[in-house]
Automatic annotation (TrEMBL):
UniProt-annotated location(s): Membrane
Highest taxon, organism lineage: Bacteria
Organism, as annotated: Pseudoscardovia suis
Start and end residues of each Peptidase S54 rhomboid domain: 49-194
Gene Ontology cellular component terms for the protein in this record: membrane
Membrane topology: Multi-pass membrane protein
UniProt cross-references to InterPro entries, sorted A to Z: Peptidase_S54_rhomboid_dom, Rhomboid-like_sf, Rhomboid_protease_S54
Protein name, as recorded: Rhomboid family intramembrane serine protease
Amino acid sequence: MQLDAVAPVTFGLIAVNVIVFVIETLAGGSTSLPVALRFGAMTVRDLQRGQWWRLFTSMFVHFGFVHLICNMMSLYYLGEVLEQSMGSSIMGGSQFVLVVYICAGLLGNLLTWAVQQGQRQYNVVSAGASGAICGLLGVYVAMLMVPVLRDYMNVQGIIANVVLCLAPGMTNKSINMWAHLGGLIAGFLLGMGYFTVLFGR
């Protein structure tokens, strides 16, 4: 794979997340739930009130610096290589990364909404880019299914990252496992569709 010089979507998404975080901090603190909700975090109650835009905005809101920096490091690690290496005449890597990020984030939030509504967790506040980022990881999993790409992949590394994506949510109730799982599934399906078009498989 030949890498280009830049990854504009990856760095653009990081910039948007950082800018929102800085504004959150100046507006009262990124760990404040009222501030998070004001900037677009999601609850089932708000979605029931018709505030469906929170399914999108919540993927750019973070709780504290550690939450932000962990997600942005993952976004950089996964997004830059994917964006630079997946160029094609059908859909360039930049467009593909953006589509995966948005679609995976939305599916992760939709799954979160469905589960929390079923469990009557109407006021649990959800936010963060991890569902969208797990979508990028899902693309790497899809790459393992394509022989022409598999030789370039670190299988053990991808499996380890999938475990790290899902396992914390099973033991730490503050981590939204459903957003991670929904994002991972969305990224895998988008990746499989993308590679089927590219390689006829």
